[in-house]
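As the next step, I selected for study a record pairing a protein sequence with its backbone structure tokens, which the following lines show:
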Amino acid sequence: MTAMTELKEMNHGQDPGNVGVYPSPPEVEEKEEKNLEVSIEEEEPSSPKCAAVRVCFHSCSKPVSTKYHPISENPGKLERLRYAFMCPPHGNLAMYIQFFVLCAVTWVVLIALTKDQALPGGNIFSLVILFTAAVAGGYIFSLCRLPPLLGMLLVGGMLSNIPVIKTVGQGLDLQWSGALRKIALTVILIRAGLGLDPVALRKLSFSVLRLAFAPCLVECLTVGVASHFLMGLPWVWAFLLGFVLAAVSPAVVVPSLLSLSDRGYGLDKGIPTLVIAAASVDDVLAITGFGVVLGIAFTQGDVAMTIVKGPLEALLGVAFGCVVGVFLWYFPSKNGPSRMFYRSLLLFSAGMMATFGSDVVHLPGAGPLGCLTLAFVAAFRWRKERKDGQPDTIAEVVGIMWMLFQPLLFGLIGAAVNFDNIKDLNSLGLGIAVLAIGLFVRIIVSFCVVFGSGLTIKEQIFVALAWFPKATVQAAIGGLALDAAIKLGNAEMIEWGTSVLTTAVLSIIITAPIGALAIAISGPLLLNRIDPKTGQLVSKDNENPEEASMLNKESTEPTEET
């Protein structure tokens, strides 16, 4: 009975451990008193020991319980920090705990299934560590108001190059790494296709072609000439390097643009649609040009057929996307069970078939374009079926999938950067010079080709800044020329191939983080914003006086007339 008496007295505010430091609100104490009295009455006849345990537990947990110490309406930083670690776990702390527990449980299951592969040094173990570390790195960078992908890229590079922990990156299987990057790229291309604006795409169709072709070809030509005279590469190898560096990275550009699009930036002029649509065509052009020049350098296959192969890949990709997209209009049927589940499954499966199937038939450029097209065509009809105010379930499902695959994509891209390939400091400096010259010319051309598209000067500057990050294509094809040279055993070609690979690695290290940062910072500064909920213009370019006055007419503060 002593324990129960103490419990009642503690509930009346006589707890010495709570006096003056953690005062409990009266309503909380009154409610708790009633609950405890009922509990004591139930347990009094049979469990006095349990009541004593409850007294002890209650006394120990009360100072750190959110029930007794709710956060105030205007808390300070110290109070928020203290509240974040109170029990039961809540908010971000609870999310982190459940994330790491989930990773740990998954790892244990994988150890049971794959044995050595999930132990240190194995492929599965390296993937789990890479994923967990990439998520943590992305979150740390997001706290600093930087794009999360920068943290993921940095973590991937550290796990492959820092002496103590580089066993994680070295334990990654190249085939697994390539397959996972393709799956992640499929998810982001589907997400991009669902977000393309058909009205804006129709208006900007000619601008898309100009933005896709002109900067890519001009940068290739510039890099070819610069690398021939600065690095001493033969003309064929110089243009081979030009096509390697000319491609932009959808893995960096598309997520960055979608992040801005989700917040309403650039939607009034269709800028995200313009850049995302041009990115796929740009990659097809660069990969095709690389294949042609590689065939000339090593006399592999029919050069004429290789030249024809580029347009053929683009046509087949668009045709596949249109056919599958129309198919998804009618399947699954409207009256079918679990319609959204099967619709999401069919969409993802078709995208995977486009990405992986194009490699099987030796038409790699058709896959990404087909994946983007099928999502765009399918969403064209789905938008009409969706009622006003109804949530976009498919976009939400794809968004969740992207949350899972984004750390893998950028972590693996970062892990693909190997500083051991950078051996010659002289070629390192010359490679940076060639890359800088090519980027400078590319930005100027990108700014010029969108003249006449209805964009303001600020928006043209943003397009130019968004049109130079490099990562996935360079990681995929940067070492192919060196591999071919090693097979031939030609020492001179091996030296040229090493220079190409070194410059490709440099392009990833320099342009991927800088490009992502440039998009994240310049977007809110240079683009107008539309409220995604109301469709109303939130911010306008101040170069237009009429639009600026419309923007400010609801303001309660007086404005000066100029």
